[in-house]
Amino acid sequence: MLLFTRPSRTRNGAFGRFPPDPFAMLERFERQLAAPPWPELVMREEPDKVTLTVELPGVPASDLEISVKERTLHLAAKAIAAAPEGYETRRKERVGYTFSRDLTLGDQVDASAISASLKDGVLTLTLPKRPEAQPKKIAIST
Amino acid sequence: MSQKKMPLAVDVYENDSELLVVADVPNVSQDKLDARIENQSLSVTATRADGLVYERTFRVPSEVDAARVTATLKDGVVSVKLPKTRVARQIPVSAT
What we know:
The structure holds 2 protein chains of 2 kinds. Chain A is an all-beta fold. Chain A contains no helices and 8 strands.
């Protein structure tokens, strides 16, 4: 089991530009199976969109910060795995975590069309690419 | 489908009326979460959408009322409440 991903651009927050080549090879970051405090952001690129997923158990939608300012996508969340009010702790294995990423969106991304969903503790962000940035089939006339 | 099993990290809390077991199970939908209690043993099995299975079993003290154990799943976190039997059972004494 890999405990660390390959040096990941997303991990340090400096995403860099998406390759301008619409036929860029699909690169899939291998998911890190280690527990928090590093929720890993996984990026998948497809011809028409980029998908970001990150597991954030214990974070309700109201505690999730997602915003876009100019070409920067900002994500932040925090989960505190503390004893609930009125209980004593008998065993503690879970750890709380903070998650924060600032990603630079490449020119291909249509920032106004970014959508997000949070389900079963997994945040999925869909970043559609602008139509011009998507591969166009060229019809061959015979 | 891969059936890779992963141990589940849990927190256990207690107050006068119950034990509370809390675990992070991201990417698990409600229908894929199985919690059962049998013979003083609590078993939690959760299957993620990608096929990975979280699993943990542990012994439960005898003061837990198995019939009243409940579990809830919210934001990828499962909480199992194990109420303690509160009713002291009066033992009838008969004269011999």
